[in-house]
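Objective 1b: paired records.
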Amino acid sequence: MTTISSIMNTTLSALQTQEAAIAVTSSNIANVNTDGYTRQTVVISSTSSGTTASSKRVYDSFVIKQLCSAKETLGEYTAKAKYLDSIEVIFDESEGTGLSEALSDFWSAWQDLVDNPTGSSERSILASAADTMANYLNTMSSDLTEIQEGIDDDVVTTVAAINEDLEQIAALNQKIAAATAAGQDASTYQDSLDLLVEDLSSLVDISTYTNDSGQICIQLSDGKPLVDGDTCWSLSTTTNTTTGLKDVTWLDNQGNATVITATITGGELGGELEVRDETIVAYQEQLDTLAAAIIDAVNALHTTGYDLDGTAGVDFFTGTGAADIAVNTAILDDPELIAASSSADSTSDGSIATSIAELQDSLAMNGGTTTFGDYYSALVSQVGTDVATADSKYETQTDVVETYQNLRDSVSSVSLDEETTKLLMYQSAYTAAAKVMTALDEMMETLLDM
């Protein structure tokens, strides 16, 4: 049997329900411009004694996972594009200066010596041109090494940022579990957690899942755990004794380190490691191959010739690669030591100078299929292609991230118009319930008067 008392209880629950709904809507409106805020929706349920209101976060877990994956790729190409743009400057030939021009001047100087084998000015110009070419190779090699070392420092910084995210995620997991156990709203913690996971995804390739307590669990792509509940594992760096560069390590609960450098393939850290350990190394090796081939080819001919005094030629170049190629200091000090002649008795012969000048067009590279100049041009083209690819993928991935962010926002962001409409609806329901309560109060007074 329905009584005034039961009606009052029902009306009271209606007031409390609409009040809770207004509180949720007000929170949405207050956070309309809060970065990472996930809209909450009111869930009103009917009970035997009236109604109850609860709230839940409005989000699409699939879109969020796709966004994290997209940010991981974007992080990788952000790093690659940044470093490759710096590397491209080293191989810049657009101003008519660079190694290509230096190589051309070097071979031309030999040809000039062919025309006048005993000329002192031709010999001085040749020594200077050779020194300029060697210096270009030295500088390019050292510049690449400098960028590599800079990336090495960035690896340490990125690992520190990863660890900071991991610690904050574990701390939030603990707060979420405590709030859930106490029946409290954990949505603010979960919003912060989502932002941290997005940031972590941009730094390193990870996989995630949510446990029964609403906590995020995170693993590296190779399966090593990073966060499980309120427990987190750390990454660290250690110097590789062979390369002198930093290896990335994963630390277990006993502090034992496992090198994981080779298994990291995504995020900023993956991009940094790839450019540092693969891209730059490949460029260095090609420069070294070019320098070594020039050293060997020129020295092989020069040591068979004779200088202006009829003395057998010495090595024209010293060194083994781009980093240390140099003109023999004895020749720099005295260009008369350049062995242009094939005969000790005829210093005006110039046949050795001719043979060395002809090296410009010889197929001395890539197993006898490419000239020195074409080999270097191919390297410059490769650098340009790598830069263009990285820049293009960075731009494309930026658009992909923006697309998923828009999809997330279309589901989770706050619409002021929508929330205002809901606020008016809940306010009207609250006012109506209040009027019922007023009517019931008057009925109770009438009953008591009787």
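Objective 1b, second protein:
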Amino acid sequence: MIRKKILLIGDFGVGKTSLIRRYVDDTFDDSYLTTIGVKISKKLLELDGTTCELLIWDIEGATPIKHIPESYFKGAAGAIFVGDVDRNETLENVNSHIDRFLSLNPDASYVIAWNKADLLSDEQRREIESFLPAQALLTSAKDDQNVSELFTTLTREMLA
């Protein structure tokens, strides 16, 4: 069995915890709970004949004044960067989160979740999908949209 540490990184309130709960426990809760520090979940994923144990680090949200401690980044094989499609500033901050993560883990893999897609109209969804970066997926923990695909894509990248 292969074990991989992955991080979910993004601003406060973008849905990192909800994505993890949907993926690990197949549950969703509308109530907002602030993550303090880090919470680690585990999930086994069978992919192309390989069993991978994902150690999923749910890291507290970043702010312009409060950065994620670098010690959390150590040993990570991959990351999911999460932005909220209803809050443009969180999407704009994704690039700085990626730069910081890759400066500490240059060989790591990553994907981007543009989360809370359930809040978009069909027209907004089509517009956003037309300019999504290649490594990004529109996701919704509430509707279970692309959540498994997000983790599978990242795991495939880490194993490549």
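The first strand starts at residue 2 and ends at 10. Residues 20 and 58 are 8 Å apart (CA to CA).
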